[in-house]
Amino acid sequence: MEVQTASRVQVLGIDAGGTMTDTFFVREDGRFVVGKAQSNPADESLAIFNSSQDALAHWDRTVEEVFPELVTGVYSGTAMLNRILMRKGLDVGLICNKGFEQIHSMGRALQSYLGYALEDRIHLNTHRYDEPLVPVSRTRGVTERTDVQGKVVIPLREADVRQATRELVEAGSQAIVICLLQSHKNESSEVRARDVVRDELQRLKVDIPVFASVDYYPSRKESHRMNTTILEAYGAEPSRQTLKKVSDRFKKHGAKFDLRVMATHGGTISWKAKELARTIVSGPIGGVIGSKLLGECLGDENIACSDIGGTSFDVALITKGNFAIKSDPDMARLVLSLPLVAMDSVGAGAGSFVRLDPYSKAIKLGPDSAGYRVGTCWPESGLDTVSVSDCHVVLGYLNPNNFLGGAIKLDVQRARDHIKAQIADPLGLSVEDAAAGVIELLDLTLSEYLRANISAKGYNPAEFTCFSYGGAGPVHTYGYTEGVGFKDVVVPAWAAGFSAFGCACADFEYRYDKSVDLGVSQHAGDADKAAACSTLQDAWSELAVKVIDEFVINGYKAEDVILIPGYKMQYMGQLNDLEIASPVTTAATAADWDRIVEAFENTYGRVYASSARSPELGFSITGAILRGTVVTQKPVLPEDPDAGPTPPPEAYLGTRPFYRHKKWVNAALWRMEALKAGNHIVGPAIIESDATTFVVPDGFETRVDKHRLFHLKEIR
Amino acid sequence: MTTYTDEQVAHLTEGSLDWETTFRMLSMPKDHSRFEQYLKALQAKVPFKERIVLPLGPHLYIVQNAAKQWVTQCDCGHVFGDYRENWKLNAAVYVRDTEEAMTEVYPRLMAPDTQWQVYREYYCPSCGAMHDVEAPTPWYPVIHDFEPDIEAFYRDWLGLPIPEKAA
Description:
A: about 725 residues, alpha+beta, Rossmann fold, 5 domains, 6-stranded mixed β-sheet, B: about 170 residues, Acetone carboxylase subunit gamma (chain B), Aceto_COase_bsu/gsu (chain B)
């Protein structure tokens, strides 16, 4: 024990989810602990503190001792998202082009069904608009028009802007957003409008912030740009207060690190950052970042990241060591222009409700789920609809006395009764077979989804290592990877805290994007190529100022910042662009252009096929990207000595009846924490930990490696 | 199978059911007892004693009267006649067939040309409730909207006993 505590704790990752707040502490020697506590939406800092105490108790250490040792702390959570979903933001006033006042409420029509399952999307009656972030009553149109080429066709009528400002202040606006058409193409009118608004506010002696879309998200797509800028005004400042509270509590307990927040682009930013809207989704991204780091350690450059939680199954692919970025995602039922780590989700998870279709008698999973209420097996849940967890409990997958480390006791008989009445009896099956049928259906749904996700993008699963994490991941890993043919299947011992771990792995990185429109034909002359380079370079230089500004807020100097330029490119006339890390640090000459094109063509050939390359169409650059990072401390993986294939006797917990393939078997139970590197376990076995359960059924075996990663294999 | 309380179904008929429950109702297979609960909620709302057999509109029903005959009846109790007959033939009618009448309900130039299309509004002669609006060509006969096979509906779709009917 003394040897262990001698090592300093360096890195903290936080995943403040809707139900549980996870913390993940890593020591210099790579040892880690995971803490869990019930989330507290009213004061997130308290839940983080409780979770930290829970984690550090494993090392017999206290928060007061450890916080001052930390050099890195990264937060990810749902604070911002909840604020938007619950419409608890500032009263924002919006200035747009005259005649376009309703655009925000109309949400491109598709906001009426964003986030729906397919069945509901094609069922018009279910479509419904959420309350807009800015009501029409606080929206004012001003006369101005810039055309799609960026030419000002009708100059800004400044008197309109002044009047709009006065009316919006009168209407009680706490912030003013300005978003004019095509401002990403030509910012002059919008910048002028911003200055006029500021001037008028000063005249009125009103001190409220002004957000012009060009200062924040100068990207094409009008609704996306407007929504994102509104989001910034609406939710960012209140969220900053939440984060400040978290940061203050750390400081109170002696922490010296500067709290960072996981952002949608896969880097972390300071809670003091100017653009906080991009912290709206962060939890699930952590897992992808963590997978990338693990992959680098293991030498795997193609990874299928799979995260199964209570409500959904999220899949992301890392190819050649890179994850994909989506530039106009939708979140919280809003179309946005934020760079987001690309992920695909299906609404089936470990807590999904299970129902029989009354007409076809088919088993249906979800789309809703029991969430933190687990299922009918938890009597206090108040639920009477069977969930997937109920089936697990009945079949012996889960330990009813050790769910969440024994925090809640599950009632197997209650689950049996509900499954019997709702599923088994109507189908004429035994409870076991009905429950096993549900699990098989879920496993099949997930493995088909995973397989389709890989092959639809033109890849072969045999070239991929599958990482499985999330609280419920290891229960299903065998089920959704069986027969897919992955090169390797990896379950980290800290699967339940993997998102928090991933956050701690992320770079301190700002990323700014700007739309550009460049078209250069295949055999263009050097002058054209150089001109294109100059436009791109201008955009990079503009973004560099923003990136460096952000780091300066955190006390870094410009020379500490490593700038990584990138661009989005496509064959002229094609619809999808690819994001490329630039092979040149500055773009000026025709030779630079040729290297830019070459890098794009190589990526295109890899993502699609070399034969699909179409240089004869010419090349378009649609966006300039600039990322800036500074050096930070990241978690190191544990390196354990090989203890041989035989698990230590103290890891053995006995056996539990386990039902699969129409028969009960006795599965060996192991305590995950007590297993050693090199240990080899052949199924049927169940490896339990407080926060997760790893199922190794008949026909599978697993080996623990020196990094405490479990490798799952089918035995043929 | 999802089930709902009588109170929820009553809110549904009033349009005051919360969105989450409404959404669940829309997306899930229909619950078995819905029609019975729906009739119960309607029956509690109407001022008349006659038993509702089938609702036809927001204020119009096919009911079973004291003599066990099935008739079409308004909220207010006004009877439009046998349920197999077109009730519209016994309603008060207002036809909008001039531009002037059209501009009462639509802005100018946004209403149909009455040479091509007219509106026929059907009202209860007793209470004045509007029961239906047709938008046919001017010469078109009165439309008989719906000739329900109530026996088959109760027997084959709902699995409920058919309300008694005088021959």
